[in-house]
Design a protein that fits this description.
elongated, six-stranded parallel beta sheet, 17 strands, Rossmann fold
Length: 394
């Protein structure tokens, strides 16, 4: 994926249309509760502004139904961006309508306009060519800096760069970094290569586990999906979250993985989903009927930490237990600390893994924290990204 990057093109006097991921969390008062995704886009935005270009930003936020919905407006992100950059930032109240066109036409070098939510238009999700052409006509250069949606074929991701024709189509700094770690490192990892896969469902991670077993030295399993594997081995899972219809699938992975696939040896369980419930630590597959597994046990956590510490390449996707609910965050904590303390290249998948590593304070001690949960999963599965393939090669 050797793609031309934003710093490789002359932007002076040009309008650069950047697809960013400003899908930030908002509270009930429509205030941003975590601006990390805006912060991550700043290097690409500033690169254009500092070199005499102007910036048109487009993004989605939430899941509106193809029409305007005030609770999903990008106005708060434009306001926040205006506080973070030393530039004039304006907000367009539509995407390809009269206000957007007027504000884009008025853009001067060093200025920014944020378009309203792409998903207020039905054409975004359907990949509509007309909608894409209207967006493409606004700019001289297209830049994809939205890794979180790189696995999608929405209009802004695929049809817009296609509609740009011979105009430059490049990746931003964020997408370039994601590709470097998630694609390049996985394609040629330094061994031992260890993957840690958690989360609720085997079915959500089946393709990831399948692909990682082909390239990893060890794949460590945690989270609720471990109980489906325990059931497949004839164990007792009590009230644990389990996919009884995926037992055959788990058995296939067990047969395929052999010694590479490492399962928990003990389980931290409780008789209620609360911090003050009655707790037990039992051997894996020995959960009493009135208890549910909520975390890997201490022996498993120590075993996983030892395996991780000797790894040269580590990929982590999915927590080991209910990390939001002490004391069932212990397994995730111990594994996260082992990753942070290790000397290997460490890649944290997006979603809950990114949230956990941030919450535990280890984010600055790992090599890379991905910004895209679904996109990082897709890349770990070995999927092709049309939205990246369509961009200019070096």
């Amino acid at each position: 994926m050797a793609k031309k990057q934003i710093q490789d093109v002359d932007v002076a006097g040009k309008k650069v249309l950047i697809r960013v991921d400003f899908n930030v969390p908002l509270d009930d008062g429509l205030k941003i509760t975590d601006d990390r995704r805006i912060q991550m886009a700043l290097p690409s935005i500033k690169s254009v502004l500092d070199r005499g270009g102007s910036v048109i930003l487009m993004s989605h936020l939430g899941r509106p139904k193809g029409e305007p919905d005030p609770q999903f407006s990008l106005k708060p992100t434009a306001d926040r961006l205006g506080e973070l950059v030393d530039a004039n930032v304006t907000f367009a109240t539509d995407t390809v309508g009269a206000d957007a066109k007027a504000k884009v036409d008025a853009l001067q070098p060093g200025q920014v306009v944020v378009l309203e939510n792409l998903r207020f238009n039905e054409g975004e999700k359907t990949g509509d060519v007309t909608f894409a052409s209207e967006l493409a006509s606004m700019a001289d250069i297209y830049c994809n800096d939205a890794f979180g949606t790189c696995h999608r074929t929405d209009a802004s991701m695929l049809a817009v760069p296609q509609a740009m024709g011979s105009k430059p189509k490049v990746v931003g700094f964020l997408v370039a970094k994601e590709i470097q770690y998630l694609s390049d490192v996985i394609n040629s990892p330094e061994s031992p290569f260890v993957a840690i896969v958690g989360g609720k469902k085997v079915s959500d991670k089946i393709n990831v586990i399948d692909n990682l077993l082909k390239i990893c030295d060890k794949v460590l399993i945690g989270g609720a999906m471990a109980y489906t594997f325990a059931l497949a081995k004839g164990g007792q899972v009590g009230k644990s979250v389990v996919e009884r219809d995926k037992v055959d699938l788990a058995n296939e992975l067990l047969a395929q993985g052999g010694d590479k696939l490492v399962l928990p040896v003990d389980t931290h369980c409780g008789d209620d989903f609360s911090s003050d419930c009655n707790k037990l630590i039992v051997d894996a597959g020995q959960i009493p009927d009135d208890y549910e597994g909520l975390d890997i046990g201490p022996t498993t956590a120590a075993l996983y930490a030892d395996i991780v510490k000797s790894a040269k390449t580590i990929v982590w996707n999915g927590p080991m237990g209910v990390f939001e609910l002490p004391p069932f965050d212990e397994g995730t904590k111990i594994v996260a600390k082992a990753i942070a303390d290790g000397e290997g290249t460490s890649i944290i998948g997006g979603g809950d893994s990114a949230a956990a590593i941030q919450q535990l304070g280890f984010a600055d001690q790992v090599s890379h924290v991905s910004t895209g949960g679904g996109a990082s999963l897709a890349m770990l599965e070995g999927q092709k990204f049309e939205a990246v393939d369509v961009l200019d090669d070096i």
